[in-house]
Amino acid sequence: MGTDDFEEILKTGRPTREESMHKPAGDSPQVSFRVPRELYDQLGRLAEPGQSANQVARRLLAEHLDQMRGHAT
User: Fold this and answer.
1) What residue segments make up the domains of the chain, in order of their start?
2) Which residues fall in a compositionally biased region of kind Basic and acidic residues (predicted)?
């Protein structure tokens, strides 16, 4: 799974067999993805100093969702 696969997940929102999604009990649903080390490393390279690969992934997903919301109206 490479960057193109990650972008496809962001576009379609469809899980692949390499993903694990869960929604914990409580008010704030969360989604977790298991990604290959290669993709995790690529996300880390996009990080600003002091920022984690997870934070980059969250930012990219939030930006994508904002764009999707803008196109939906």
Assistant:
1) 3-72
2) 8-25
Q: Which residue has the tokens 């969702």?
A: 65
Under 8 Å between Cβ of 34 and 19: yes
State the pLDDT confidence band at 2, using cuts at 50, 70 and 90.
Answer: low
The residue with tokens 């193109």 is 4
The stretch 13-20 carries a mean pLDDT of 51
Q: pLDDT tens, 17-53?
A: 444 444 445 555 666 767 788 888 888 888 889 988 8
Distances, alpha carbon 22 to alpha carbons 42, 47, 67, 72, in Å: 24, 25, 24, 25
